[in-house]
Each structure stands twice: as C-alpha cells, then as structure tokens.
Design goal:
Protein name: DUF4834 domain-containing protein
Shape: elongated
InterPro entries: DUF4834
Distance between the termini: 110 Å
Pfam family, one: DUF4834
Organism: Dyadobacter beijingensis
Helix content: 55-70%
Structural class: mainly alpha
Order of helices and strands: HHH
Radius of gyration: 31 Å
Keywords: Membrane, Transmembrane, Transmembrane helix
Strand content: under 5%
C-alpha cells in the first residue's frame, strides 16, 4: 500500500511541477482528439465555401474598411436655389 501511495505521490508531483510532462500527458489524453476535430471543422468549412460559390461566379471575400460608417448619411452642404417659372 505504501508503494502505491509513493507512486501516486511522485506522479502528482510530476504533473504539478514538470511542464514537459504535463504537456505530454495532455497531448496523450486530449491533443489527438483536438487535432482531429480541428481538421474536421476545416474540411467542413472548405466544403461549405465551395458549395456557396457558383462556378464562373464572382465572390468577394472582404468588405471595404468602415463599410458601416460610409453607408450612414451624415449631412452635407446645402445649395441655395431659385425657383424658375
């Protein structure tokens, strides 16, 4: 029983104080699944992008900077006019 306690104690110390061991353990437990999910999401995004664009069509990736500000009317200069009959 004491040997098991010592092994668990050393294991917890390694996890707590050795970053390399912690990263390795995290990669074993979570890293592979995380990489697979990222690749799956990337493939789905690429497939959706291909489905959205029509062959021979034009697609614009970005909007001009300050697109929302330029669409608002802020007033302007007024010109006097005379009515012509």
């Amino acid at each position: 029983m004491k040997v098991l306690f010592n092994i668990l104690f050393i294991f917890l110390l390694l996890i707590a104080f050795v970053p390399f061991f912690r990263r390795f353990l995290f990669h074993l437990l979570v890293g592979r699944q995380l990489i697979k999910q990222q690749e799956k999401a990337y493939r789905a995004q690429q497939q959706a992008e291909r489905a959205r664009t029509k062959p021979g069509g034009i697609r614009v990736d970005t909007a001009p900077p300050n697109a929302n500000e330029s669409s608002r009317f802020k007033g302007g200069e007024y010109v006097d006019y005379e009515e012509v009959k």
